[in-house]
Structures are given as C-alpha cells and as structure tokens.
Amino acid sequence: MTTTEASTGTTPSIADREQVFIGGRWVDSTGGEWVDVVDSFTEEKVARVRTATVEDAAKAVAAARESFDKGEWSSRSMAERADVVDAIADRLERRVDELTPIGVIEVGVPVSVSRPTQEMVGGLFRAVAAVARTFETTEERPRAAGGVSRIVKEPTGVVAAIIPWNGPVGTIAFKLAPALAAGCSVVLKTAPEAPLSPSVFADIIAELVAEGRIPEGVVSVLCADREVSETLVTNPDVDHVTFTGSTAAGRRIMSLAGERIARVSLELGGKSAAIILDDADINHVVQTLPMGGCMQSGQACIALSRVLVSRKRHDEVLEVLKAAYGALPIGNPWEPTNFLGPLASKRQQDRVLGYIDIAKEDGAKVVLGGGRPEGFDKGFFVAPTLLDNVDPDSRIAQEEVFGPVISVITYEDEEDAIAIANNSMYGLSGAVYTEDIDHGFEVARRIRTGTISVNTATMDFTLPFGGYKQSGVGREGGLEGLEEFFEIKTVHMPAPAR
After folding, report:
1. Which residue in 390, 388, 389 sits closest to 399, CA to CA?
2. Mean pLDDT of 483-490
3. pTM greater than 0.90 (yes/no)
C-alpha cells in the first residue's frame, strides 16, 4: 500500500494483522477478538486487527521485566542506544509511503496533512538520539562535609506507554524514542481506533530484533481495550506509566497508579486560548490561527479552540475569522488540495455535533458551520464551526470538544483577556497575537499553560511539551522528555583520609 495507490481518490487495500507483537516477535494471541478498521470517509471496513488479551499483556510485561532485569539493553551505552533510535528513524522514513494512507484512514486527515506528519516522526526520533549522545548519566558533586558523591541517572525500568487514536505515530515517538534511549523496556498499548500505524512500528522493531540490534523482550506493541490498559497500570512489574489521552482517563490512571506509588507521566486534554490583542494585525492572525484551531479537524489536544477578541474589535475580527475558517478546504481526504477531512469515527462525529447543540442551548450563536458540510451525506464530517456570544463559563468554553469547533469570547481589556484564558482546568497550549513581540512575550508569561506561541500556531516538538493543571504531569520532547525516563540515585563515596 503506497501513497501512489491512494492517489486514485479511493481507499487502498490493507492486509489484516492476525497476530500480536510480544517481546519483539509476532505471535498468536491467547484470545480470538478482532477490531475493525473503518475508513471514516467511506464508512466501510477496510481491515481487521487482532486485539491483545489480559493474558497477552501479562506476557508482554513479563518479557519486558525479564529483559530489563537481565540488563542487556540497559547496560549498553547511551551512544549505542542512540544509534538504534536513529536506525528506527531511518526505517520510518523509508515507510512514509506506507504510513501516509494509514494516517488518512485512522484519523481522517487528508493526505496533504498526513504525509508531513509521518515525515516529521523520523525527525523526532533523531532529535532524541542527538540529545542522548550528550546526556550525562553520572556526575560528581562535592559534599558539605568534604569529599564527593556521585549522582547517577538510571532508567526507570519497565514502561507501559499508552497512546491515543488521534496522533498515534507522533505519540509513539514521544514515548518510545526516549524510553529506548534511556535503556527502558517498553510495552506499547495502542488504541483500538488506530491500530495500523503502530503495527508498522512493530514491524521495524521485529527487523531490529532479528538483526540483534534490540534484544528480545525489550519492546511489545499491543492493540487492546481499556481493561488491558488498567492491568498494565496496576501490574507491579510495571515501573513507569506514560499516557497520552483525555483528562478523565488520566485521572483514572493516576488513581490506579497511586495505589502502588508507581511513576506516572501524563499528557492530557486542552482547551487552549488564542488572545488577539488590540494591536494585532488581523491579516497576520488569519495566516495561522484557523489552522491552529482546526488541525486534524480539531482532533488535537493543542487545538486553539477559544479565540479571545476585545469588544472594541469584535465585529471586525469576527467577519475576517468567519471568512478565514470558511475558506478552509474540506472534503475527500485522498485529494491533496483539502486541509480538512472527516472525523475519525461516527462516535466522534456524534460527540462534536452534540456539543454544538449544547452550545446553542447555552446561548451561543452559530456564525459558521454548525453541522455536516453541504454535499457530504457520507463520511463522518463536521464543518468548521465558529460560535459567537460564548459565555467563558459555559460548557463549550470549558470542555474539550475534539472537533473543528471554535468559540469566540469577548473580553473588555487585557487583564480580562488573561483572566479568561486562565479560566480553565486545562493548561496545555495557547497563543498571543500582537505587533509588539516583547509585550506578547510578557502576556504569554502570565498564561498558565505549558506551551504558548506569539504570533503563530506552530510548535517544535523537539522542545519540551506538556501541560499545567489538569493538562498533565511531566514533559515530552527535548532534554526534559528524555529525563522523564530516568531515576536519580545518589552514591556517597568515602571521604578522603585526613
């Protein structure tokens, strides 16, 4: 299956995945359950993937535990492990044509969005490898009473990495690359809604295991449901749980992990605000803001879904935003001219349309969109939707919708704008638009969010990324993302003889 095959405008054929991937090998599952992969554009089943059972998960953890305790992988140097991380990047880049149509099928994004997303992932692995090569795992520090102690950084151990459906390839990079570089063993649990692209990663790991570059047991990849996730979180042989997904699921994972004081890293939901200050050039705003709010049809935790506009400029800005969001090309995801495709599933479509109804009941006015786009009776589409007259405390302004739904909120002055931006249980992303860059930085400093941009909606995921408040715990990307997978040990050495 290649991008060329998909360029005909129809879904390419995809082979079923009949086995599960445990400890570096494709093996038969202990169960007989399958998950259907449905093309969100045609609403037709295109493939089946075997799902893992609780018993399969236990086998994967046991393999990871054994491999880590033997130390064959963790005892290698950071440079050796970095070379393997680079090798994964090489093989991912050779599979871009295979991964691109899978991204279209699993998430609904058009090929024009899917391809650069897949191309980016190799770079994320390479960035981790580069950081790993300069990472010091041992340093000496002086003791107050004389002599020195050695501060040693050691891998956290067996990692359960649980990823979502909306960005499986990138999320795998955020977790698998630093975990492997640190010397951990990993059980990667993928979402049933997006099981195909993780299988490509499993194929790559299988190649490296067969070549002797990764020991058996170090990596497992399982497509499974929430029950299996919970057995991973509660398994005493799992040292570290790293999860990306909804805040509700993150609360559950933290609660379960807390019962045994397991290490947890969480990247959760967002309800990010874009503040348009009065001096902003609206022509600059519309170059990035609509895409920042509707990337992946809004199915992104970092989506700029709240747009804050002053009362003085409200009418002017609203008209320009209406035209800009309305101009986003939507349609057949196999056509590269489109920026928006369908949502990932019927369940997601129903959820988003339900939120639009709730918003209208709460007094919001639909300025653009509000339902299916015209001419699309099939496919899980929701048109880009712009809502005005949104109360900052209403559900549409406070809850993560995960669709192309933008709430325009009016503020009185700059202090009010900052207060509204911070009026959220989330704190993941955000943006400030202004012609005074230094002032934009000062405003950004006052927003309680883990990542924020000035005059752009783009991000560099090779730098630390994560959330404040209920948007998460810990960081991914950059040096900080690698440090998540290390424990710190202090070794006090004998004081010198007097």
Report:
1. 390
2. 98
3. yes
Task: Please give the Cα distance from 266 to 243 (Å, whole number).
Answer: 5
Side chain identity at 210, as an amino acid letter? A
Mean pLDDT along residues 122-147? 95
| Domain span holding position 445 | 273-460
Sign of CA dihedral 393, 395, 399, 402: negative
How far is residue 214's CA from residue 229's CA, in Å, rounded to a whole number?
Answer: 25
Q: How far is CA 364 from CA 38, 267, 403, 419, in A?
A: 33, 30, 17, 20
Q: Is position 98 annotated as part of the catalytic site?
A: no
pLDDT tens column, 407-460: 999 999 999 999 999 999 999 999 999 999 999 999 999 999 999 999 999 889
Does residue 494 form part of some domain?
Answer: no
Can you tell me the distance from the alpha carbon of 498 to that of 373, in angstroms, rounded to the nearest whole number? 82
Can you tell me the distance from the alpha carbon of 495 to that of 488, in angstroms, rounded to the nearest whole number? 21
Q: Which distant-in-sequence residues (6+ apart) come within 8 Å of 150 by Cβ?
A: 138, 139, 140, 141, 490, 491, 493
> What integer best gives the mean pLDDT of the chain?
95
pLDDT confidence of residue 7:
43
The pLDDT assigned to 270 comes to: 97
Question: Is residue 498 predicted with pLDDT exceeding 80?
Answer: no
Q: Is there a contact between 280 and 434 (Cβ–Cβ < 8 Å)?
A: yes
Token pair belonging to 295: 């990337």
- Any domain includes 467: no
Question: CA 1, CA 8: separation in Å to the nearest integer?
Answer: 12
pLDDT in tens, 66-111: 999 999 999 999 999 999 999 999 999 999 999 999 999 999 999 9
Q: Would you state the pLDDT for residue 5? A: 44
C-alpha angle 190/193/199, rounded to 5°?
45
The span from the CA of 377 to the CA of 363, in Å, is 28
Q: Do 350 and 454 sit in the same domain of this protein?
A: yes
Structure tokens at 405: 């739904």
Judge if 52 and 112 occupy the same domain. Answer: yes
Give the residue carrying structure tokens 């400093």.
445
Catalytic one of 106, 267, 400, 484: 267
The CATH number given to whatever domain includes residue 173 is 3.40.605.10
Q: What is the number of structural domains in the chain?
A: 2
| CATH classification at residue 374 | 3.40.309.10
Cα separations in angstroms, 480 against 384, 453, 466, 476, 486: 35, 19, 10, 7, 10
